[in-house]
# Entry
Amino acid sequence: MTLFILVLLVIIVLLGVKNIRMQCITRPVFSFFKRVLPPLSDTEKEAMEAGDVWWEAELFRGKPNWDTLHSYGRPQLTEEEKAFIDEQVMTALTMIDDFNIVQERKDLPPELWDYFKKEGFFALIIPKEYGGRAFSAYANSTIVSKLASRSVSAAVSVMVPNSLGPGELLTHYGTKEQRDHWLPKLASGDAVPCFALTGPEAGSDAGAIPDTGIVCRGEFQGEEVLGLKLNWDKRYITLAPVATVLGLAFQMRDPDGLLGDREEIGITCALIPTEHPGVEIGNRHNPLNMGFMNGTTRGEDVFIPLDWIIGGPQYAGRGWRMLVECLSAGRGISLPALATASGHVTTKTTTAYSYVRHQFGLSIGQFEGVQEALARIIANTYQLEAARRLTTTGIDLKVKPSVVTAIAKYHMTEMGRDVLNDAMDIQSGKGIQLGPKNYLGHGYMATPISITVEGANILTRSLMIFGQGATRCHPYVLAEMEAAAMEDSSEALERFDNLLLGHMGYGARNALSSLWSALTASRFNSAPVSGETKQYYKDMTRLSAALAFVTDLAMLVMGGDLKRKEMLSARLGDVLSELYLGSATLKLFEDNGRQQEDLPTVHYVMQLRLQRAAKALYGALRNFPNRPLAYAMRALVFPLGNHFNGPDDKLTIAVCQSMLRPGPARDRLTHLCPDFEGDKGGIAEVEHAFIAQYKAKHLYKTLRNAQKEGKLDRKQANDALYAQAYELKIITEAERDILLEADRLRKIAIAIDEFETL
# Structure
């Protein structure tokens, strides 16, 4: 007891007496911190400072406030947005023939281009005072998803002007003159925009773009003015072949000091009419055979006035931050919308196809091997819809959640790929034979485009999610880094001392919380709800504390080396991502009114999220370079081992059974893939067959019972079977006609296209 009291007194003195604390703890720790501090490039610093933190910060700090999550509200469409979707979007869907777009035209038909321009599809984010529609991020996402349910090419053509591009940059940063001149033209479709960022030498490392703008004097409209001489070579630029106005990112330099004493001004964005002398719109690319416009643009010694810089000369050198902030919003809308559409399409068609496609005398949806893949499709689609809603909610709250949108971009596009892979496995020949009836093939072909653009997925996972999240979301690290960068050393030490005590308490709390939760199976953690989802909140709180604890030690021990340990940081980023996706799932369940029909799917998704989060955390500890510390952390985080096992077979079967029938649960999970007259893509055919066969299920049961009793022959064609059953008065004439019609629709649904020649 005496020894314990002495140790306690020493700790109290060390921490409580400021002068002693400063000399014995703060100063050595500060010196160590400055030594291991990860060096940040200018572009990394700008990316770190751009955007906002949001719900991900709660998850990262070890004690999420679940009431905050529920307070964000349910995303809803306005009456104007609903009317646009019910009228203009549905009309556009009837005009889409994706086989014609991709295989024959390699372009949208002129009437569809005209309709998009006339009805304001390219003006979804432009303010109303300029003729735009000023729709919410949720509405924007919904519109793109519904278009993508019938044509990726049409959806991409609409989403690009409403994502990263001149419209968004002008709205946020343009001068009054620029907004007044360009936004009405963009809103009416008189101007078609593209934005050129990527080039042969700068893809993921956009900060290294070699394209230049040199400050000089030149002639413009008959007068000598101060401007820029531009040289650029860009590729992969969507809408470039048809663009009338070009947004351009380049490195701005002032070697002659015409603007001041800064020679290297930095990345700058300008807006240039494509008819301007020297602007070259090059040839088209062929992005996996899709029909949307994508190509090159080049320019050599093109002179523009300084006023063409977006935001005017005062925004010279601020282009990278502008791009990062705008990209963070666009990344959370456009590509996740395409991925969610893939989920809705595959769930709608694959549940229907699994019901109407028979093998060995049974619907293939009754085979457990098929059910395993089908359950993944359904669960991933629920997750995609949940993440789409939560992410657009954040954007509509006027935050710019760069980490959240990076999570959405990476994980949702990967899930989009997964659902299409599983759907192709189940629908097999129906999915691989291209033709007007094939509703999977073009989406399957286009999936790698989403994986690649707006930051390659490997980069997003291994560098961006954790790299930004660890620093931006941590309650102390960013402030400590700022203190370390201060020029006044005494003031820096004073500020660091104030932060250090809080940081130490934060770390100790997370370590103890992680251990206590692991030993008690999270039983004493709080949850904002009761019922079957309560435990998931508790388990996510446990993993949140564990992530915060492990991250703290990883940053302390590895410092700047951590960002070079990409596999390790990617795993820690995966933990944060899985917690975010799980949050979205629980919120969707609450927003939908806790529908009991959705519970099997919610259980499947949440058990999968927890399993993957724990696996990623376990993997990070297994590969942590400091082995003694790794063993100590594992003893605190997983003292009894990792028991997050994921969904079992019984739950997998229950998920499938809940969706192999028409009803509200299936409608909620497929509403972005609507039914309509004039559908040219085969989706309506398989849906009509599914509805017809489901309505006749009692008749099929009657026939099977008669076959078991020996009244009907087992091996005969359906037409003959129905005729025999009618003759034996097992079914009535009206019932025979119902069966014949259902069988006619089934044959149409499972049919594939044939061609005389290719």
Notes: The beta strands are 193-196, 212-220, 223-238, 245-253, 264-273, 279-284, 294-305, 358-359, 362-363. The longest helix spans residues 489-519. The mean pLDDT is 91.
